[in-house]
Amino acid sequence: MKHFFGIIGGMGTVATTNFLEEMNKLYRPESDQAYLNYILFNHATVPDRTAYILDHDQASPVEPLIEDIKQIESLGPDFLAIPCNTAHYFFDDLQAATELPIINMLTLVEEALADHQGEKIGICATKGTSQSGLYHRTIERAGCQPLAPDEALQEKIMTLIYDQVKNQALADLSLYEEILSDFMDQGASAVILGCTEVSYVNSHDPKKAFPIIDAEKLLVAEVVRQGIQSQGKEVNS
C-alpha cells in the first residue's frame, strides 16, 4: 500500500471507533476504492495518560507510544494522527522520535479560536489535561481567556469520560448538557471539547445546542484534508 497515513488509537477504543466513524461521515466517496488508505494501531494497553500526568510514579505512556510510532514509521506512512487530547501532553517527545509529521490537535484548536478573540473559553477535558495547562496555554496564545472547571464540574466531566464512555460506551446526553450549561453559567462563550470521549458523546447529541470547539472534529477534518492531498483523491462535491 502506497500513500497512506497512520493512526495511533486505543486511548480509548470507544473514542477511536468514533474518530473513524466521523472520518467516514466527513469523507464518503462513491466506491470502496475511493476511501482513504490508513493503518490503525489500536493500542488499548497504553498506560493511562491522566494517571501519569497527575502522578509520575505511575506507568508512563511515552515509551509505548514511541514504540508504536517506530513500528508505523517502518511501514512508510505520509503522516500520523493521535486522536487523544491528553496524549498531546507528550507531543514534543513523540514528534522528536520521528521525522514523520504528527498532526497537532492543539494547533488546530488554536487556529479555530481566531474567531473568539478576548472571549472566555471553557475547557472540558480530563483532569490530567486540565491540570497540565495544555489548553490554558493554547487559549492564551489565541488571545482568549481560559475557563478551567472547578472541582465539582471536573468531577462531572471525569464521570462522563471514565464511568460513562470508557467503562460502558454510554453517551449520557443529560450529564453532557449539564456540563456545558455549567460552563455557560460561569461565563464561557464557547467550550473546547478537549477529550475524545466527550467528542464521542457530542457525536450522539442531536441538539448541538451549545457553542463548542470539538478538537476531535478538527483533527478529523485535517486528517481527511491531508489524506485526500497525499493520496490524490477527489474532494466530495
UniProtKB/TrEMBL annotation:
Keyword set includes Isomerase: yes
GO MF: amino-acid racemase activity
InterPro entries the record matches: Asp/Glu/hydantoin_racemase, Asp/Glu_race, Asp/Glu_racemase_AS_1, Asp_race
Pfam families: Asp_Glu_race
Taxonomic superkingdom: Bacteria
UniProt KW Signal keyword: no
Entry keywords, A to Z: Isomerase
Family note: Belongs to the aspartate/glutamate racemases family.
PANTHER family given in the database record: ASPARTATE-GLUTAMATE RACEMASE FAMILY, GLUTAMATE RACEMASE
Stated name of the protein: Aspartate racemase
Organism: Aerococcus sanguinicola
